[in-house]
Amino acid sequence: MPWSSPNGRPGRWRTLGVVTTAGLVLGGCAPLVEPQTVVNEERSGVDLPVRKGGEISVALDADPDALDPTLSSTLVGRQVYTSVCEKLYDVGENLEIVPQLAADLPEISDDGLDVTIPLRRDLLFNDGTALDAHAVKRSLDRHREMPASRRATELESVRSVEVVDADTVRLRLHRPYAPLTSMLADRAGMILSPTALDELGEDFGQAPVCVGPFHFVERVAQDRIVVERSEHYYDADLVNLDRIVYRPIPDPTIRLANLRSGQLDAMWKVSPDDLPAVSNEDGLTLLNQPSIQYMGMSVNVMNTDGNTAEPGQVEGPLAEDPRVRQALALSLDRDTINEVVFSGLHQPACGPIPPSSEFATEETQACPEHDPDRARELLAEAGVQTPVPVELMISNEPLTLRLGQVIQAMAAEAGFQVRLRPTEFAASIAEAQSGNFQTYISGWSGRPDPDGNIGSFHVRSGANNYSGHFTPETDELIREAAEETDPERRRDLYSELVPRLRDFNNIIYLYRERLYAAHSTDLAGVRVYPDGLMRFREAGFVAEGGEG
Amino acid sequence: MGRYLLNRLLQSLVTLFLVSVVIFAGVRAMPGDPALLLAGDDPSPETVAAINEQYGFDRAWPLQYLTWIGQMLRWDFGESIRTGMPVSETILTRLPATLELAALSLLVAALVGVLAGVAAAVRQGRPTDWLANGVALLGLSVPNFWLGLMGILVFAVALGWLPASGYVPFFESPAGNLASMVMPAIVLGTGLAAIILRQTRSSMIEALSSDYVRTARAKGMTPRRVVAHALRNSLITVLTILGLQLGALISGTVVTEQIFVLPGFGRLMVESVFTRDFPVIQATVMVTAVGYILVNLVVDLLYSVVDPRIRVQGGAR
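ok -> structure tokens follow
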């Protein structure tokens, strides 16, 4: 039996053979599965009967920041919160807002200024403290008022939080604000145990206590975050796993090797290069979801002195003439970018609103065709001397650099001479904010509500408006859309707004990542939704005989 | 001896002072603003200002520097601005893995390097020598991240003999600890072993052709004792190399810890640079500097043990 090992783990020698062979012919082998097949097999989770108990290790792609919902700002931190800190509202499989700690969707007064939230009864924090309206008020006020709170902007529209009775809170607003419910479906809606707040105060993040299927046990920075099943959780019957160990492992190759060797049970973010193999591999389950994030190229138009300072006009044809920006946008073939750089595993994007959003319309999803001829014409019309020099600031990771090189080649065809400026992430953000760039490729993790993907990126002096570009008309339209509480009218407003933003080409939207997570086939019930979070609430080890 | 030590300690203090100035200025000269990184997705200028105030980044540099030095003297490195956890605690939890990794790979390197180097020197020009030189060249040329990944693919993924990652403290499970450290130690030790091998070989060849060895041979000393005799005299160069290679070893731990996901000091240092976690960067660099100075002091003291002609007294070295 040359292909099985004596210790009852068949396949090892075969794997060794494959590894050795793969090593020998590395670089010359075709993918095992067509990428298109991988993309088509969309799956948010596997449903199989599971048993109670067990411990799993889960790899994250980075180490979260402080585990204090008021202070944290990383996407990776939210992965851990799904286990330990529930929110007033949650995001469902189709990005719809559903109640979590709230008993129902909020009741909004006719003028849009009073938002009344009924709470679920008999909820306990993971330290046994009861959750009531006072606790909710205290957390929301902390998010709003604590100095250095990262939630302050999200809850800016809230004037005050009132306790109506033990099971009801009312938010009084300065102005109507439609995205508020979706803010409360993220960290701004996380409710912290008042007992723990009394005890830890500003150090809450060192031992966070909320309502959640698991409670926080320990954290060793950059090594692990351990959570265990909570006895106080309202749906404790649904929780199967005893313990989850989150481990930050930044390198995707190493994450995958650890998943294959059994050191890990689940991992976030499989690299596009590995996907064809993983999708076909015995013992591994691939979860695949469209995302609400995007990557785009910001063009510095009016950011002369820092993006939150007074806007001015940047010099040069790219900043001064919208036709030159349009030419640059038309020179890029999004499908080819996706094919060449990401083996077709991501999704071309042309605007800030993802196709999965309830606000997606034909107008918001429209995409200008790749047209290098028209691009050259536009450059001629603009009367600029070709090649037009363009400096592209880009993160110094291999995959992003590949993206930069493809853009370089495409833009050259239309008459641009793109020079890449690889810059480390932290440095690039500082450069982008202070306006020391010409073009810059960056990503946005995305929000379920469209305003979260548009507002701060396009309004005058917006916190994420690296381009600095704005017009009073679109600013007004953005504000109007955010205040509109009727979904139908709001959809119309975005259908009007997004094409106008697209024509500015101050952000040239490029693609949306698809989300790929993988776990061992021993597990079931792990959920990944388009918001990019892994949920382990109902996950467990597949029961004997439940093998599918 | 005492005076020499005192002298060295004073020198070390000066070095540490300079290191502290350089690192303090260095982190602040880095492009990228920690408060901006911390402020999150949609920061208001007020939030950024509040963060700067919270960590004292808004104060004058000399004041920040003095505060930092004052804290350090009380073994207080402040809190990580990213995780909010005390830095001194984090460092203490991260040191064991790195110290063990460094010690084990030194052991691997010294054992393999010295033994193979002696064998190559004794059989100079013969197949053993050729083999040792070839292997040394390979060890020097193969980057350790590649070696590590291949090790994981073969021994963890395919064969399942060793864990691909993780660290088990020695006192929790000695066997588990060893299993988790074997691959990292070999991967990190390979390059160093190659250097030691070549160094041992050349200094052994020199020693073996020297007058005192010829005399010893002529007096009828057994070949084994002749080799031992020459080895002791060759070791001094090997020791020097070990001391000098410490820097390479520390940077090697960074890569090795990334590959094997060890909760070590090197990873802490690198990742805190990416997140602009000033207090952690400053503390880790200071601790590394102290370690470097201590090891070099120990190496200098060891010279006199290996070679009594070198006397440390009065700084006559």
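The longest strand of chain A covers residues 158-165.
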